[in-house]
Each structure stands twice: as structure tokens, then as C-alpha cells.
Specification:
Collagenase (Catalytic Domain)
């Protein structure tokens, strides 16, 4: 697995983003029985101002958020509650670029503090959440949310992290 991280906000360098991303992504791929080494994920580690700009540009919401995801390919299921169309990379093919994830340090730090959660656990949850979006999971419809949240809970349990819901 290749994880390309751009540290847009140098404050991120004081966190354990790289090892947490590796662990969160490996656990996610394992839960879905996908070969982690066949994928490329890009991560933007930014501040609240940058993510607010991105949120405004891509979602029409001019406020900071914790995580944004841009899948390289639409893998959404045909019906709400069904599994997305997961990639099936062949060993001889080049790794598949899944897309981009952006994370906002200030928002994540505040949310973890307000929820009395460890920063690393909250960040790990958001990394899993972002990757699942890249793989076609969503939470707009109740059936999709139940599927995604259940999977997140199982993945986080593999990492020793309590159910965030």
C-alpha cells in the first residue's frame, strides 16, 4: 500500500498521522478482504481554513469539517444498503489509486476533546471513514449508514478502539 501524505499544516508533523493511517488503512482492507498492497491513497493534512475552503468549493459549505474524501472512481452500490462495487485488483496490474482524503487538525482536535476521546482514536476513526468513502461507502441513506457504521465499528475494534457510535 502506498500512502502519499502532504503536510500542508506543519502542526500535523507532531502527530502520529503516518503510522495511524497505515494501521487504519490495513485494518480496513483486511476487513473487506482486499489486498492492501494493491492500492494508493493520498492524504492532505491541513488546517481548518484550508478544509473550509475545500468544503465550500466541493460541497457548498463554507465551514471547516473534520474529513473530506474524493474517490477516484464512483463505486456506489446500485441500491441503498448494498455493498459498493469494490475494486478487484489483479496482482500483475499496477496499484489502484483510490482517491484523496483531507483532514483538518483543528476540527479533529476539538472534536476529540469535546467527546473526551483520544486524538489518535478519533483520527483513526476518521481515516477509516475517509477510506470507506473512497471505496464507495456512504451514509446519506439509513441503510447505507447502517452498513458503513457497522463496518467502521468492526474495523476500529481490530485496532482496539471502542465503538464511536
Amino acid at each position: 500500500m502506498e500512502i502519499d501524505i502532504l503536510f500542508d499544516d506543519p502542526a500535523w508533523e507532531a502527530t502520529a498521522l503516518e503510522p495511524l493511517a497505515g494501521a487504519a488503512f490495513r485494518a480496513s482492507f483486511a476487513a473487506l478482504d482486499l489486498p492492501a498492497d494493491r492500492f494508493i491513497i493520498s492524504v492532505l493534512a491541513c488546517d481548518d481554513a484550508r478544509i473550509a475552503m475545500l468544503n465550500g468549493e466541493f460541497r457548498g459549505k463554507d465551514t471547516p469539517t473534520n474529513v473530506l474524501s474524493w474517490p477516484a472512481e464512483d463505486r456506489a452500490p446500485d441500491r441503498a444498503g448494498d455493498m459498493p462495487h469494490l475494486p478487484a485488483p489483479a496482482a500483475q496490474d499496477p496499484p489502484i489509486e483510490l482517491g484523496d482524503i483531507a483532514l483538518a487538525l483543528g476540527v479533529i482536535t476539538r472534536e476529540a476533546s469535546e467527546a473526551e476521546k483520544s486524538f489518535d482514536h478519533h483520527l483513526s476513526h476518521l481515516l477509516v471513514h475517509g477510506l470507506l468513502h473512497l471505496l464507495g461507502f456512504d451514509h446519506i441513506h439509513d441503510a447505507d449508514a447502517a452498513l458503513m457504521e457497522g463496518l467502521e465499528t468492526r474495523i476500529l475494534a481490530r485496532l482496539g478502539i471502542a465503538d464511536p457510535y
